[in-house]
Amino acid sequence: MSFVTRFAPSPTGPLHLGHAYSAVLAHDMAQAAKGQFLLRIEDIDQSRARPEWEAQIYDDLHWLGLTWPMPVMRQSDRLLLYHAALDQLTDMGLTYPCRCNRSDIEIAAGAPQDGVPQFGPDGRIYPGTCRTRAMSDAGPKDVIRLNITKAVTALPALSFCETGPHHQGTHALNADALVETVGDIILVRRQMGSSYHLSVVIDDADQHITHVVRGEDLFDATQIHVLLQHLLGLPTPKYHHHRLIRDNHGKRLAKRDDARAIATYRADGKTPDDIRKMVGL
Ligand code: GLU
């Protein structure tokens, strides 16, 4: 199939207007291209994922008129695959365990310096304190990081194609920028067995996703995904990062924004067409 996309919510709260926009847009794009729309439940964070939120996601999406093939992929069923990918990166000498907590990282990062970015798409740029630790030394309280300096050594020319409204075109990866503005990202978070970045590239490949449709807050993370796809020998899909739905003050909607939850609009008697209009579809 030449167009396969997905909606990949985390069942950690109610779907709001922003999710509805993302899901319906992806669904409409797949339909227009006579392609396929898939659903994936991103529930690796088992401390926050709840079955009732997952049930509500299915219910809201069906109500919006969306359909998808069964069974739905769930990340919590796939930890062994993520571990195998991590082993692959470890065998390449690209991983290390890290025991730093947030305040260790802040202290080691030191005072902000002019022109040196402090934050990247994976949060605060890691100062490298644990970089020389061996994987054989990894303990249950450690996270596992990617040594990005090693990972970009001898990097071939990599790029991705973006079709979204704000960054349309071909984006080449830049090894120096990855080191300076992204840093040593987390591949396995504490008590999660994986991380968003590691899981998303494996899942997109396994679902044969050709077009990733998602919010533009994830545009900067895409270079991480393209790098991981290259390291793991996975294909790079096309990307479409769409505008974000904001509240009346221009702020991005958050999961806890119950006022804009689809369930709230449903209870108020709104129709799926009303929701489409509200998000500008
Ligand atoms: N689970 C992510 C979220 O809810 C989606 C990430 C993606 O589409 O790549 O924001």
Describe the structure.
- With 281 residues, the protein is of the alpha/beta class.
- The protein has 2 domains: 1-77 and 246-281, Rossmann fold, CATH 3.40.50.620; 79-206 and 218-232, HUPs (Rossmann fold, 3-Layer(aba) Sandwich).
- Helices cover 34% and strands 16% of the residues.
- It is built from 10 helices and 12 strands.
- It has helices at 17-32, 51-63, 79-91, 102-109, 148-151, 175-181, 196-206, 222-232, 262-267, 272-278, and strands spanning 4-7, 36-41, 73-74, 95-98, 119-120, 123-124, 143-146, 159-162, 169-172, 186-188, 211-215, 238-242.
- The strands form 5 sheets. It has a 3-stranded parallel beta sheet with strand order 1-2-3. Strands 4-7-10 form a 3-stranded antiparallel beta sheet. A two-stranded antiparallel sheet has the order 5-6.
- Strand 2 (36-41), helix 2 (51-63) and strand 3 form a beta-alpha-beta unit.
- Helix 7 (196-206) crosses helix 8.
- The longest helix has 16 residues, at 17-32.
- It is globular, with a radius of gyration of 19 Å.
- The model has no long low-confidence stretch (mean pLDDT 95).
- The structure holds glutamic acid.
And the CATH topology of the largest domain? Answer: Rossmann fold
Architecture of the largest domain, according to CATH? Answer: 3-Layer(aba) Sandwich
| Radius of gyration using CA atoms only | 19 Å
> Strand-and-helix sequence, N→C?
EHEHEHEHEEEHEEHEHEHEHH
The CATH class of the largest domain turns out to be: Alpha Beta
Assign an overall shape: globular
Mean pLDDT: 95
Helix content: 25-40%
Task: Give the beta-strand count.
Answer: 12
> Mind describing the biggest β-sheet?
3 strands, parallel
Strand content: 15-25%
- Total domains, how many? 2
Structural classification: alpha/beta
